[in-house]
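Human: Note token order:
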Amino acid sequence: MTARVTTVAFAGIETIPVDVQVQMASGLPAFTVVGLPDKAVSEARERVRSALSAMGLALPPKRITINLAPADLLKEGSHFDLPIALGILAEMDVIGHDDIERFLVLGELGLDGSITKVGGVLPAAMEAGMQECGIICPNANGAEALWAGDLEILAPISLVALINHFKGTQILPRPIRRDADEINDFYGDLRDIKGQESAKRALEIAAAGGHNLLMSGPPGSGKSMLAARLPGILPDLDARQALETTVIHSVSGMLPEGGLIRTRPFRQPHHSASMPALVGGGHRVKPGEISLAHNGVLFLDELPEFQRTVLDALRQPLETGQVSVARANAHVTYPARVQLVAAMNPCRCGYLGNNELACTRAPRCGEEYQARLSGPLLDRFDIQIEVPAVKPEDLDLPAKGESSQAVRERVFLARELQMLRYKNENISTNALADGEVLQDAAALDAEGRGLLQDAARQMKLSARGYHRILRVARTIADLAGSAAVKRGHIAEALNYRQMVYRR
């Protein structure tokens, strides 16, 4: 008789059911894993052998064949250890075949028989729910599986505990759900930033409409501080967004303590990051930083220091909201709907335009430095502002600006207006509006239309730039509580495209 255990393989964030078939036959003793396993899966033989030995069990002197079907699908990861071990235990009559037929199984084995944490338990649990079966996963992932719905979950700490459960001598308790942490002071407060009122205004507009933001200014002007406080003024994720974001972190093995991610991710990769690290890929295809920031903020500090090819690879995901990674052995798609925030110095030394600390190679230093950024990439920033240096006398003044909580309340109200406006369009913010939806939402009066058309001719705006100004103007009107987009809203939105115009 052949024992069969169900598990999954991952293609991006999608799950593919895998049938683990275990057969013991007469012949020379052997332990063979077939079905296109990678190195980690092939090494499961030694982990399973040692785990059984730790329990006082020895493999029978037979020819053991493990088939992972479908055979033409590459199997990657250590989560195949537990299904292989359970299939062998069923063939050895330690547990019943019926015990494992009603479960989807994944987990990595330690040499002492412990079951250690693996990635991808949440999407696997969602797959188990669609197949109307339960799931067996490591104890460390039990709370994560609870978010998939009402299904039977076994989360043992070791192989012995799982066998005892099936024999009825030690029933495993249901995992306990862990609540997500609320927004705290981790991101800091806008009140801590002295001066920079125009930059704070731009940050509020970016948060309210989900717009991409580029800040340029000398070192120490507060660009990174402003970016770090953006998540603190953004509303929490809704239920659908929270599940999407949690699934991505689960697949990447970066989900903390099994809790559902409710606050928006904030990712800030170093400028030395490679293209696979930023957009995804690698030998074993994994989500990149842009996917880990899905429904949140991707902050790129020192933007021109990133490799040109890496930055240009962001252009397509920023437009489509997803990134496709094509490799010889894999073609996967990850969601990547992010709010891009970037900071840069005006030149390599950072002091271009400063009369007191004059750049020694101006203007060539600034021209060469800014030329590292392509025009199409800059065109994808809805809001582009200059952040001037803070005056020394302003640093001694007491902090008297608005708190992040006060700004967050206005952002929340503006987002609610957008949710109601686009409730039938499957979008949530002005930054995602396009085509007729945008034309209807940002209908202009005669004065506003005339101003925008004159500016488009003078600034030589592209079609993308034209529509991005409309989106920003619509957000400014939402913050003001105005149903119509007026000339003043267009004028302020145009002020945030000056960097591209000067270029």
Remarks:
- The CA atoms of residues 352 and 362 lie 7 Å apart.
- The radius of gyration is 27 Å.
- The first helix runs from residue 39 to 42.
- Residues 181-185 have pLDDT under 50 and may be disordered.
